[in-house]
Design brief:
Blueprint lengths: L6 E11 L19 E10 L3 E9 L5 E12 L2 E13 L4 E8 L2 H11 L7 E12 L1
Antiparallel strand pairs: 1-7, 2-3, 3-6, 4-5, 4-7
Length: about 140
Amino acid sequence: MATPAGASTTASTTAASFTPVSVSAAGTATTAARQLIRTKVYFGRCKDTCRINVRITNISRTYLYRVKLNARLSVNGRSVGSCYDYVGTIKPRKVRYAACTVRTRALTQRWNNYLDGWASFNRYARTSVAYRYYR
């Protein structure tokens, strides 16, 4: 699909963890464009299925269109699945909530290992929010 003349597309990524882990971003030589959103990741029920809730705040004065959420879940450093959600339009200075559920065999196996006492269950979610805006 062709991009309209005045459209810009961008994506923002965040990470959330259940255990206190410091996340540091490596500095790059190029300057990135300022992001128009802020995200906060919450976990819902997370056992053999895991609910990932994300609060997306539009901090700009422009409408954001076609907002999409992608989330990757890992437990104990191993990837166990991913999910996505279509959010829609976010008005200027407003908040929208998105959520998706991960249901995989790998997640169930990690949960069963935790119940059996063989491993811990430290979950970690990486989210990416893509959106389009018009200048």
